[in-house]
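Hi R.,

Here's the chain you asked about this morning:
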Amino acid sequence: MSASENHAGSLAEAHSTRDSASQIARATLGLRELLLQGAFRPGQRIAEIPLSAKLGVSRTPLRLAFEKLEHEGLVHAIAHSGFAASEFTLTDIWDAIETRGILEGAAARIAAERLKDPAQLDPLRKINRAMEGMQASDVESFERYLDLNETFHVAILELANNKILRRAVEQIYRFPFASMSSRVLHSKTVQGSKELLPIAEEHHRALIDAIEHREGARAESLAREHSRITRRNLEVALANRTFLETVPGAGLIKLRSVD
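And the predicted structure, written out as tokens:
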């Protein structure tokens, strides 16, 4: 085979690989969105053929998407018949938030222990100043606020410089409602949530201070306490009668099983 033929073959293989990866990504994102929108009743088998057509992907990428979302906990396998949407109790969600707090606490402690130069905290300070200067009073500004909040937490993970820990935290972030930027909180629909924002911002300031002064135990404790705001946000949201109808993923919560 000539060099030109080898080159052409390599290009074709690369193109095929990129196309396959694109289909898997499209299938995963599309399926996740449908699940959070409540398109499938928990426990009911999800038919692959119509879903494949709806998402515009072949069945192989779709099956890989199912496997990825099974790993996230959004779907579960049914013996010999495919996958179904999962259902979560509030206990499941509380446990996920608690686990997130343990992991983020470890990240904050390690970040404090490994900090070499206070200037490394400048991105955190900049993010926090931007959040404190915002008025999260409408959907667009609130989405921006949540994005900044997520960036703040990821920046602490980067300071910890622990790939294994970061992988574990990112897994928890995918769990419905456990992420620090879960969209269950909106100041226009959940008025009680407004009281929680100043608390969260004070936690951020204290975390920066603890990491700067290499106070690992204090940073860990603050991060664990900070994660509980996510639980308080959800508790406030659940008190709103329209919550289950308006918030993505709320239909996957099995409220009647809660103690």
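Residues 184-190 have pLDDT under 50 and may be disordered.

Let me know if you need anything else.
M.
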